[in-house]
Specification:
It is a single chain. Helix 4 runs parallel beside helix 5. This protein has one domain: NAD(P)-binding Rossmann-like Domain (Rossmann fold). The chain is of the alpha/beta class and 251 residues long. The protein is built from ten helices and eight strands. Helix content is 37%, strand content 17%. It has an eight-stranded mixed β-sheet, sandwiched between helices.
Amino acid sequence: MMDDQALLRYSRQIMLPEVDIEGQERLQSAHALIVGAGGLGSPVALYLAAAGVGSITIADADHVELSNLQRQIAHQQASIGGNKARSAQASMQALNPHCRVIALDQHIAGGALERLVASVDVVLDCTDRFSSRYAINAASQMTGVPLVSGAAIRFSGQLAVFDPRRADCPCYACLYPPDDSGDEALSCSESGVMAPLVGLIGCFQAVEAFKLLSGAGTAHQGLSTFDGLSGQWRHFQVPRDPACPVCASLR
């Protein structure tokens, strides 16, 4: 049960009929996993903490650099040299001390990643490498935990939600077959990225996680892409691949 302070803190969400007290209580009892505390992970972490998600695990082995501060808003000048997950944890708890935040300052892979994903209600992929995205997707498919995937580079961003609980929903490998992912080296450090773009895509990821956890609305389906130079969104339907090496054998 929420006390008077919690009712006041989340009052602007509770007054939404699609959320109400029941939806807010679902948020408070939920556990989200954010993999990556950089440009995408920063707005995701801050907004989910502010919105009242009860438990959030955030994982990142990297350290804050000066060049990160242009877009990674969970970190401050004083964070330089510190671990990103722990820096984000401090920002999240300063924003909402009632949110339980677990910082993992190491790379999580293999069985450890699968066990971690199995322990949460939603996983948000805020990484920037195909190898990480494939690993997170595989863990999501194996455990049946919904995955909210985002990406941003230069002036372009995209978002997709992969929910293994839906029989007709594709997975990340359906959209990007492993044999086609030869662009591993594409990164913000080499290609650049517009600062507000990662905020926009990260906020989109937070919106989808909010809906999945609270029960409000309907989760995003298909793939949405955003062109920051023209300001245009495009949406594509993405069918399941019956020959997908990841999800075909699990359905």
